Amino acid sequence: MVVAGSLLGVVINRKQYSYPVGKVETMELFPMDFEEFLWALGKEFLAVEIRERFNNMVSMPEGLHREALEHFREYLIVGGMLASVSNFLENDSFLDVAAIQNEIVDNYIADMAKYASNTDSVKMRACYNSIPAQLAKENKKFQYKVVQRGGTAAVFDVSIECVESVGT
SS3 for 57? Predict the structure, then answer.
């Protein structure tokens, strides 16, 4: 049996929820990287070529390079989340990818909301929603004022810790 979850409930409500020590094997999973995306597409040869040519600092033939770039563009659109990649492979189409990606984001937000008070939930959602703006800044330090005008560590510190603890 395989089960996935964020453990956010354990982090936030430590007194209410216990962790089943000895009964759980924990694995940290991440979205697919580009090489894994190529494997999923059945393009193992291309993945090997890219790696070998990178390691040996040798350029790729133009046709192979164009194919690699095309698949990289696909990867940038589809991303590395299994549901998006699986749908893309099944349908050879980008049509449902955005809906699946939005559902994943909505599920993250719903997971955060179900374990917190309404006030904390709003703060966590605001912190989570600020991530793209935080990453787009030249200064890569997290700034509370990007979350909310006048935002401070005192207001958002716990919310940031919760968002960080779920690995989003």
Answer: coil
